[in-house]
Amino acid sequence: MKKPADLAFGVDERPPSSVLWLAALQHVGVLALVMVFPLLVSRAAGASPAIAAQILSAGMLALGVATIAQARAYGPIGSGYLAPTGFQAVYLGPSLVAAQAGGLPLVFGMTIFAGLVEATLSRVWRPLRAYLPPELSGLVVLFTGLAVMAIGVRYLMAGSDGQPVPLVGWAVAGSTLAIMIGLNLWTRGMLRMFCALIGLIAGYVLAVTLDLGSATELAAIGHMPLIALPRFDHLAWSFNLTMIVPFAVAGIAAALNTSANVTIYQRLNDAEWVRPDIQSISRGTLTDGLAASTSGALGSCGISTLSASVGVIMATGVAARVIAYAIGAIVFALAFLPKFTAVLVATPTPVVAGALIFIGCFILIGGMQIITSRMLDARKSLVIGLSVTAALAVIMFPSVAVSAPTWLRPLLGSALVTGTVLAFVLNLLFRLGVRQKVALSLDGAGNYPQAIEDFFTQRGKAWGARPDIIRRVIFGVTQLAEAVIENCSPTGPLVIDASFDEYNLEVHVSYEGDLLELPDARPTEREVREEDDGARRLAGYMLRRNADRAQSVRRDGRAVIHFHFDH
């Protein structure tokens, strides 16, 4: 592993104490913002402020342990990277449905189940990747962003209690959102890093000043002790068969989220990164699933690795895993500070609304970026378009779930669940007829460079391959065809065979004629000018460098050039 030049502290390095604790505080600032998710679930279940505070404290215990566990690779546990954990938006939709259907015990019990689904997936991640393509991961993130923003807008329209929000409430929500946006766009350094947290605090103060906060809850904060052991009076668990699909989808979504995050951490820490380390991803996903189950067992909501922390690491260049211990210590300590959790529980609804809209913007755009990172053909475009339409229908017409049969309500009660299930089914259906192995024959006449480009562009879209890999393939095969036609006296057509899976793209070009060598060393200028095969050897050397691996052999009387591209 080679540390990139733009990374200040790599995964195995130890930054100075001041940098270490400052970086940890930045991640805790991001984590504080997503603590609104268990708050929303508590309100949906009609829980008292005291119970909501207990749920937060229990969750922070699980978060602290999970963040530390991810940092080291012990046997099957831990991704080995700084991968902070937080309350995860993918659990929000199913948890809200469960809270309304069976109260908090059902939320806790089904969160345990979802975590076990993710942990199980981690053991069979490699063979399942073909059925969980990147565009499905992007859709999950996009649906999560849509759902989060929809909740924020709903709070603005009707409040958390269904009552119309007064004009002053709109002003507070708008001010909260404006502060977050302004600090994010027009400041640098710490102000930009903590833009969401600063906006949350400013909105909170403004709401209390304008008498929008709950006087009873705020008065109770003053009577609470500064330090106290977490309480678990709320602990109870229940399970419901009708909630299996929504929470299974949440577990799959969390696995996709963690897989993507760990892959990014690998790329950030290795300048020579080529492909994802499946073992690290598997360990990280197993840890993530066990962490979610632990959170449910302690009486809290679903947790997973935080995508927002990826942005913090990219912005600061500080990726040292030792920071995870500082984050874990801070979060663990917060669980023993009842005043802190009580302040979060008392967050006024307009402030929560502004924060949710801000968070949702970045989650939604992150999903779009994942979707567009791969080439898309008509099949994949239909999967995406139809699934997004279904998710939007659930958001726009929530009454459909209420009027649906009891067994169908959990499926239609969450945009994430509806959209993801439809996307998964359509992906399986549309895979029919998609060939992973294809061939093209070139006779050297006509516009063969265009034929090669059209062939691999179409196949790349059907496969869902990365655009940069397809560009390398098109360049390499086109240059190879030119070199063979000009230097190897081919008789008959050039036959191109290509195959693809989620990890590798293999290309074999065979022809009858002189074998094109692929030397490891570049021919000298004198050799290129004076020797008969100098130009041919130079072409072979350049072709070898374009692919991740290359080989030229004779097989059954034909010359065969093999290109391998890591995907």
Features:
single chain; 567 residues; alpha+beta; Heat Shock Protein 90; 2 domains; 5-stranded antiparallel sheet; two-stranded antiparallel ribbon; 7 strands
Q: Can you put this structure into words, describing what you see?
A:
The chain is α+β, with helices and mostly antiparallel strands and 567 residues long. It folds into two domains: 17-225 and 232-430, no CATH class; 437-566, Heat Shock Protein 90 (2-Layer Sandwich). Helix content is 63%, strand content 8%. It contains 24 helices and seven strands. The protein has helices at residues 17-33, 36-44, 49-71, 92-123, 125-128, 134-158, 167-186, 189-193, 195-209, 215-222, 244-269, 278-297, 307-316, 323-334, 338-345, 349-371, 378-396, 399-403, 409-412, 415-430, 448-463, 467-487, 525-530, 534-546; strands at residues 85-87, 303-305, 437-442, 491-500, 504-512, 549-555, 558-566. The protein has a five-stranded antiparallel beta sheet, with helices on one face. β4 and β5 form a beta hairpin. α1 (17-33) crosses α14 (323-334), α10 runs antiparallel to α15 (338-345) and α11 crosses α20 (415-430). The mean pLDDT is 86.
In short:
This protein has 567 residues and is α+β, with helices and mostly antiparallel strands. It is 63% helix and 8% strand. It has a five-stranded antiparallel β-sheet with strand order 3-4-5-7-6, with helices on one face. A two-stranded antiparallel ribbon has the order 1-2.
